[in-house]
């Protein structure tokens, strides 16, 4: 697994170890954390470096790897607008290296971490996998091109593969695996509450029930289970396909903030700022394809996400929160 020491990958590591799999993590520990992957083998290397394809091939052969999940990537949409070359070079370079490295090996399944960012500004809901893709930033473009590269390279190598398009990931399956980057509505709001600063709502004039933006938040443990389901489904799936991984239910920014304020016992009234350019009013996944073809459905609720994220705050604070602006 690449990027297995990250927030999402480490949840999948824990599920795979629990079912008895041997797990090899390749990670350069840029945002990854060693403490998250006890029980797995860690190979510390930069997958975007020119030697990486050969290193991956050696690791795969040495450990008899038969399935690969590729999480390693840069993931900040705003940063990608400022540094497009770096995002293309690293995200697509690392992916190309991994795909080259698994050619002509015993690998028989490949899962690529894609994102709802491939859709861009959607107008119809729910968002099905077949609507036109139109990413609005270089990060989303690297995910879409990553799907194309995955499709082409795994077809050429005869390796069954899928791309999973994650919607808004939140919560923690275990406190020590919590997201430590101050990057999304959950982590930014918790950070502000802890500093006694009011949470911020960007725009309350959206075309939604309470006027604030609506998104599809999926619990990271649900998402991790979707990877296990995908690995199992891949055995019967010769050609690459894409799947939305969300809940199919929309939750507003105000609902998330209210729920976090309530669990924290510090009900600070949020302040309303201007809408951010390019921010769609509502983005909710159509999850019927993943239910039908992967046999996977989300199980956890908004309160599970809110409570697990809040309860992990001590763990995150103890290890040091990362000030980043990731999406
Ligand atoms: N978190 C989300 O909401 C979200 C949503 C959609 C898609 N994704 C995708 O899911 C994947 C995992 O995201 P995450 O939230 O766990 O992020 P993360 O930053 O916590 O994890 C990424 C991991 O990859 C490693 N890494 C990055 N570049 C590397 C390289 N060149 N070589 C080796 N290791 C490298 C990092 O050290 C880290 O451990 C990413 O591909 C991301 O784009 C995340």
Characterization of this structure:
- This protein has 327 residues and is of the alpha/beta class.
- It has 2 domains: 7-169 and 217-245, Rossmann fold; 171-215 and 248-319, Alpha-Beta Complex (UDP-galactose 4-epimerase, domain 1).
- Helices cover 40% and strands 14% of the residues.
- The chain has 11 helices and 13 strands.
- The chain has helices at 7-18, 52-63, 77-82, 84-102, 138-157, 185-194, 220-234, 253-264, 288-294, 302-311, 313-319, and strands at 24-27, 41-44, 68-70, 110-115, 161-166, 168-170, 200-202, 214-215, 217-219, 241-245, 251-252, 271-273, 282-283.
- A 4-stranded parallel beta sheet has the order 3-4-5-10, with helices on both faces. A 3-stranded mixed beta sheet has the order 11-8-13.
- Helix 5 links the parallel strand 4 (110-115) and strand 5 (161-166).
- Helix 1 packs across helix 7 and helix 2 (52-63) runs parallel beside helix 4 (84-102).
- The longest helix has 20 residues, at 138-157.
- The chain is globular.
- The site of nicotinamide-adenine-dinucleotide has 25 residues, from helix 1, helix 4 and strand 4.
- Residues 3, 5-9, 27-32, 46-48, 71-73, 75, 90, 94, 113, 115, 166, 169 line the site of nicotinamide-adenine-dinucleotide.
Q: What's the arrangement of secondary structure elements?
A:
Blueprint: H1 7-18, E1 24-27, E2 41-44, H2 52-63, E3 68-70, H3 77-82, H4 84-102, E4 110-115, H5 138-157, E5 161-166, E6 168-170, H6 185-194, E7 200-202, E8 214-215, E9 217-219, H7 220-234, E10 241-245, E11 251-252, H8 253-264, E12 271-273, E13 282-283, H9 288-294, H10 302-311, H11 313-319
Parallel strand pairs: 1-2, 3-4, 4-5, 5-10, 6-9, 7-12, 8-13
Antiparallel strand pairs: 8-11
Helix pairs in contact: 1-7, 2-4, 4-5, 6-8, 8-10
Nicotinamide-adenine-dinucleotide binds at residues 3, 5-9, 27-32, 46-48, 71-73, 75, 90, 94, 113, 115, 166, 169.
